[in-house]
Amino acid sequence: MSLIDLSGNLLFVAFVAYLIATLLFGGAVKGGSKGESADAGKKWGSLAIIITLVGFIANLGYFITRWVYAGHAPVSNMFEFTTAFGMFVVGAFILIYFIYKVPALGLFALPIAIIIIAYASMFPREVNPLIPALKSYWLYIHVITAAIGESILAISAVAGLIYLLKNIDLTKRSKESFWIEVVMYALILVLGFVAVTTTFNVTGYEAEFSYIDKDGNTKEITYNTPALFGMHQSELLTADKMEPIANVPAIVNAKKLTTVVWSILIGTVLYGIIRLIIRKPIAVIMQPFAKRANSQLMDEIGYRSVLIGFPVFTLGALIFAMIWAQEAWSRFWGWDPKEVWALITWLFYAAFLHLRLSKGWQGKKSAWLAVIGFVIIMFNLVAVNLIIAGLHSYAG
Amino acid sequence: MKKIICECGHENPEGTTLCEKCGSPLTEEEKSKKLADMRYEGTAIRSKTYNKTIIDKIWNFFSSVKVGVAIIIITLVAAGIGTFLPQVIYVSLTEYQDAAAAYKAAYGTFGSIYYKLGLADIYSSWWFQTLIGMLGISIIVASLDRGIPLYKSLKNQRVKRHENFLKRQRIFASGEMSAEEADKAFDLTEAKMKEMKYNVRREEGALLAEKGRFARWGPYINHVGLIIFLFGVMLRLMPGFYIDKTLWIREGETMAIPGMEGFYLESKKFTFETYSKDEQKEEFNESKKAVNAVAKNYQTDVKLFKAPDDAVPGDTSNLTLVKEMPIIVNKPLKYDGYALYQMDFRLNELKTMHFDLIDKKSEKSLGSVAIDLTNPEKEYKVGKDSKVVLKKYFPDFAGFEDGEPQTASPLPNNPAFIFVMYTPETPKGETSFVAIKQTLEPLGTTKYKMKFSAVDTRNVSGLTVRKDKTLMILMLGGIVFMLGVTIGSYWSHRRLWLLKTKDGRLLMASHTNKNWFSMKKDLDAVTEYAHLPVYVDQHDEDQKAEDAEKKSKDKEKEGDNI
């Protein structure tokens, strides 16, 4: 088996281990609640964390073998970075788990890591040769530190989510119960993206189009999903494939738009099916898993993960970033979209800390902020890389 | 200044909410709260005390955390809007008459509005800069406003606090105890807390164990770091602190470096490399991406020279070699606070054009001419008896206007020439207009012509010359910030108070600025070791809810019994 195959297999092992561990954490949360003794819950819990650790070691194995194979740290394209981010989320969860020993955290953190890794695997997996701008050891230092910082911050959103599920009264219609369901819906949408991409990948759908870009040049593009939207003045070149419903202006990338719309469509259908089966909001199904968590402790974990993650994020995403930018681009700051969004993330968490310290925003308010913070991080990862063009968008 | 006199007799300055000496609540508002507000130890804070003069009002505005957070939110929203479309500096304007036209052409009406609103250059707009400035002021004012009183208060804190202070702490315990038992508990607590690296101070009937007070300074230190950073950024606007120039240099040229007086740079060679197939991974070669070659290296091999101090500018006769090295992306040439970066390039710029002067009929050549396109000569000798005069030269020929040839730029992108050819056969000279793939004979048919034979090209490197004296200041700001944020995030200020009351009770209270989970671990350890009364977390909502539930259940049971 070559190193790259080994690497891929290790990632798969990690993925499966996280799935199993999630179920076990579910057992740990539920165990001991009805009839069973508290010991049963503990046993589930320790089994769950062992499986998580096994998965994490396999995940690290993926990272290291790919590093050795590629000759550079596997954080240089969308697949590599997103996978690494998923891995660090699990790492951050393990760290927080060993401080606080709360199984509910695993039940929610691991699925998020799983979704992130599944999302990552939708991107091309080839090992890219490094372009000159990336040839620097700062690539490893900056990207890895920033990703670790973001993953620790993500755990605060997990704690926040548990806090909200526990403390929001879902029996009443309210803004809170609506938005928490929106969060659940958003998670399903990512699964929608995975489902769409996998389905058309497996069927090998390919449709070639020619189009005219914003500078007036004629170009070609290959769609891997049936085209809902065509590029500017596009013409279908492959026979017997779906014609786009409408063409878009040149500044919009219709291929990406098509993928997004497909994901939303399929995600919504998926969500609808789930709702039809369970006949109540997903949040209501999830709520019992959060009920036994201690609110006070969840609030503290949320706060503590921001405290742990914020300095790491500052160091990786701003300070190391600036040092590298000075070396590579001759200026430490250039208002590139990715730089700006890192600053926005940083300012947001700074506001979070100030509101908490000075305005006493604890409990629900703090939990909502943590969830919004995660949304900003994901926006930075997904939208800024894929939609907004800039110096960092070598990833797409 | 009004003084507030506490029940204990201590005189507190106006605005104090918890007595500096005993910790009893002083204001009605503070008394109405179940738990003491410990954020700034209840000391008098300027912004919360005075609000009369205009200075008070300005001070209060900037010291308000609400205002600070509002500025942060406005800044981050504005910064986000600035990423919707590329900023002006990233937009290529060459094809359009101005930026407004470029935005309209590329992004339609939205782009047009975006540009008109100034969003295309948002980060250098006066109002964005003002926001950053206000943020800086807010950081300074708020830090002074809270930091100084907090520092004084913690420095002067007493061991013995009033019962009203203890029982209004989040962690509180109370138990009846004989005097001997209490003394023993004090001794054991002191021993255990010292073992856990707390500083322990004792007074008659009171004990204070404290650890990690420096953690309270973290936020103030990191704010100092931010101020140093912002100061550094402002310094860049001062002349001499910051140089940003571009240098286009051709292979073989030696040029004065703009912004770097007395220094000259020679470009020996520019190299652009792409990865070969066997350098790329197999599965990459099989993918669609492999259709395009991937850039591997941009490199300019240079020599850096220094002119003697007394040399006239432009005099390159006595240069001394300072450094010889390649400038590569990510590896700038650094010298004396200056840095030269590989930023851009043009491949195969025309350097020399070779022509043969030939007889049109016989195609016999009289000799050849090599014209240096950046520095052409006026006259070229051909063979023994002939010459060619370069009457006019158009480096970047862009067509005719009113019958006159035009040049678009001084770069030799599309050279065109007007030659006058003198040969023994045509001593009066024949005029010919020669451009690439085009020969015109404006003054009548000629016997001879200049036949293009070859061209030499060379590469041009686009280098950025940078000097930034503020980098050290920015770095210092960054280090101070990291130091502060680390101290403030990874350490916590923990305190434990014990008080022996006259009526035979032992009171215990505890406070930490964060990480209550670990504080409780310490408390559990000391409670067990020193047999202290069991504490309650007066803030735990779940506990309260459970207690309430239990009570109601107990009541039900009682009801059943009856």
TrEMBL record, chain A:
<protein>
    <submittedName>
        <fullName>Cytochrome C biogenesis protein</fullName>
    </submittedName>
</protein>
<keyword id="KW-1133">Transmembrane helix</keyword>
<feature type="transmembrane region" description="Helical">
    <location>
        <begin position="137"/>
        <end position="165"/>
    </location>
</feature>
<dbReference type="Pfam" id="PF01578">
    <property type="entry name" value="Cytochrom_C_asm"/>
</dbReference>
<feature type="transmembrane region" description="Helical">
    <location>
        <begin position="260"/>
        <end position="278"/>
    </location>
</feature>
<dbReference type="InterPro" id="IPR045062">
    <property type="entry name" value="Cyt_c_biogenesis_CcsA/CcmC"/>
</dbReference>
<dbReference type="InterPro" id="IPR002541">
    <property type="entry name" value="Cyt_c_assembly"/>
</dbReference>
<feature type="transmembrane region" description="Helical">
    <location>
        <begin position="107"/>
        <end position="125"/>
    </location>
</feature>
<keyword id="KW-0812">Transmembrane</keyword>
<dbReference type="InterPro" id="IPR017562">
    <property type="entry name" value="Cyt_c_biogenesis_CcsA"/>
</dbReference>
<keyword id="KW-0201">Cytochrome c-type biogenesis</keyword>
<feature type="transmembrane region" description="Helical">
    <location>
        <begin position="47"/>
        <end position="69"/>
    </location>
</feature>
<feature type="transmembrane region" description="Helical">
    <location>
        <begin position="6"/>
        <end position="26"/>
    </location>
</feature>
<feature type="domain" description="Cytochrome c assembly protein">
    <location>
        <begin position="263"/>
        <end position="392"/>
    </location>
</feature>
<feature type="transmembrane region" description="Helical">
    <location>
        <begin position="81"/>
        <end position="100"/>
    </location>
</feature>
<feature type="transmembrane region" description="Helical">
    <location>
        <begin position="340"/>
        <end position="357"/>
    </location>
</feature>
<feature type="transmembrane region" description="Helical">
    <location>
        <begin position="177"/>
        <end position="196"/>
    </location>
</feature>
<feature type="transmembrane region" description="Helical">
    <location>
        <begin position="301"/>
        <end position="325"/>
    </location>
</feature>
<dbReference type="GO" id="GO:0005886">
    <property type="term" value="C:plasma membrane"/>
</dbReference>
<keyword id="KW-0472">Membrane</keyword>
<feature type="transmembrane region" description="Helical">
    <location>
        <begin position="369"/>
        <end position="391"/>
    </location>
</feature>
<dbReference type="GO" id="GO:0020037">
    <property type="term" value="F:heme binding"/>
</dbReference>
Automatic annotation (TrEMBL), chain B:
<dbReference type="InterPro" id="IPR023494">
    <property type="entry name" value="Cyt_c_bgen_Ccs1/CcsB/ResB"/>
</dbReference>
<dbReference type="GO" id="GO:0017004">
    <property type="term" value="P:cytochrome complex assembly"/>
</dbReference>
<feature type="transmembrane region" description="Helical">
    <location>
        <begin position="471"/>
        <end position="492"/>
    </location>
</feature>
<keyword id="KW-0201">Cytochrome c-type biogenesis</keyword>
<feature type="transmembrane region" description="Helical">
    <location>
        <begin position="220"/>
        <end position="242"/>
    </location>
</feature>
<keyword id="KW-0812">Transmembrane</keyword>
<feature type="transmembrane region" description="Helical">
    <location>
        <begin position="67"/>
        <end position="89"/>
    </location>
</feature>
<dbReference type="GO" id="GO:0016020">
    <property type="term" value="C:membrane"/>
</dbReference>
<feature type="transmembrane region" description="Helical">
    <location>
        <begin position="126"/>
        <end position="144"/>
    </location>
</feature>
<feature type="domain" description="ResB-like">
    <location>
        <begin position="65"/>
        <end position="524"/>
    </location>
</feature>
<keyword id="KW-0472">Membrane</keyword>
<dbReference type="Pfam" id="PF05140">
    <property type="entry name" value="ResB"/>
</dbReference>
<protein>
    <submittedName>
        <fullName>Cytochrome C biogenesis protein</fullName>
    </submittedName>
</protein>
<keyword id="KW-1133">Transmembrane helix</keyword>
<dbReference type="InterPro" id="IPR007816">
    <property type="entry name" value="ResB-like_domain"/>
</dbReference>
<feature type="region of interest" description="Disordered">
    <location>
        <begin position="537"/>
        <end position="562"/>
    </location>
</feature>
